[in-house]
Amino acid sequence: MLKLPGLIDPHVHVREPGGTHKEDWATATQTALAGGITTILGMPNTQPPIFDEATLNLSLDSAKDKAHCDYGQYLGAGPDNADIVAGLANKAAGLKMYLDSTFGELRLDDMSLWTPHFQKFPKTFPMVMHSESRTMAAAILFSAIYDHPIHIAHVSLKEEILLIKAAKEKGIKVTCEVCPHHLFLTSDSPLPNLGEGLGVRGRKEVRPRLATQEDVNALWENMNVIDCFATDHAPHTIEEKDSETPPPGFPGLETILPLLLTAVSDSRLTIPDIIQKMHTNPRKIFNLPEQPETWVEVDENETYEIKAENQFTKCGWTPFEGWKVKGKVKKVVLRGKTAFEDGKFLVQAGYGKNVRA
Ligand code: DOR
Ligand code: ZN
């Protein structure tokens, strides 16, 4: 049995409030545990979005009642809430800035709207950027000008990882994460069409989009530039994905670890890489407390097929349907209690703690 520390996913769309038919604080945190993850940080593009004290409390109150693993909640940067979110920084996972197209309304197009956030959000709390391609270059320039650390979400392109590498070499305080779907899938990957109708197109929709094999290769070749692995778990139901207007997003909490462990077994990655990018680095970057007596037990040799029907997420599908993987999460101990074992959840809703409490 392989024993890993409690893993951290800094990028999860919990969907509560407002989208609880897709996922909620109970199912997101259970799904995390089933994937070997003991801390999740929830994104603010909910309905309503999390952008002030009332909406932050709305999410944190639900989480307090329902969470099975530890959690934090991001605030969203809006056009006129820089003072408000700066004042709430110590209660939140960090500030999320949507600088490119996304699901929901939290998008800051005009660069003059970025400035107050860079000036006011405390430097000791993380600022996470959804910024793609040239927008990423602009975000890195802001980081340098205002001397404010930034963390770049879901890097997917060769030009992006090379830019981040160069920025780090210049001493700019930038860190980044990469998602399994950008490491294991390209825009040409055949995704399983499980349902009838429009499945093939809708299931592939994700932001950032799946990229080319050259982009994927560049991510693998620059593994030392990648600080964290994150899922960007963005559940939408099969019906929504197969509709005329499919929303972008993939579920990922239950597949990240088996996919990465399979890469270890294929000698593309090491166990220390996984520990560094899913525990040590995210703990440092997001300023997370230690979880004493916490570990994950994995059967390294168990081989199985990924199937949506065996998953705990509410969304009912996975882009990795049918993939053969090696490495199965058997047991998760969280702060001295067995929280998950052999497919069963063993702690009560509400056991999960707010990382900022
Ligand atoms: O694919 C995505 N899904 N990208 C985003 O930026 C948002 C996310 C979601 O919330 O569904
Ligand atoms: Zn996201």
Question: How would you characterize the overall build of this protein?
Answer:
This protein has one domain: Alpha-Beta Barrel (TIM Barrel). The protein has a six-stranded parallel β-sheet with strand order 5-6-7-8-9-10. The two termini are 33 Å apart. 31% of the residues lie in helices and 19% in strands. It has twelve helices and 14 strands. The model has no long low-confidence stretch (mean pLDDT 96). The longest helix is centred in the last third of the chain and has 15 residues. By secondary structure, it is α/β, with parallel strands linked by helices. It binds (4S)-2,6-dioxohexahydropyrimidine-4-carboxylic acid and zinc ion. The site of zinc ion has 5 residues, from loops.
Descriptive terms for the model:
alpha/beta, binds (4S)-2,6-dioxohexahydropyrimidine-4-carboxylic acid, 12 helices, TIM Barrel, 357 residues, binds zinc ion
Note the gap between the termini.
Answer: 33 Å
Structural domains: how many = 1
> Can you count the helices?
12
How would a textbook summarize the main sheet? 6 strands, parallel
> Which distinct ligands sit in these coordinates?
(4S)-2,6-dioxohexahydropyrimidine-4-carboxylic acid, zinc ion
Strand content: 15-25%
Low-confidence blocks of residues: none
- Helix-strand pattern: EEHEHEEHEHEHEHEHHHEHHHEEEE
- Average of pLDDT: 96
Helix content: 25-40%
The order of strands across the largest sheet is 5-6-7-8-9-10
Number of strands: 14
Q: Let me know the CATH homologous superfamily.
A: Metal-dependent hydrolases
Radius of gyration: 19 Å
What CATH first level would be assigned? Alpha Beta
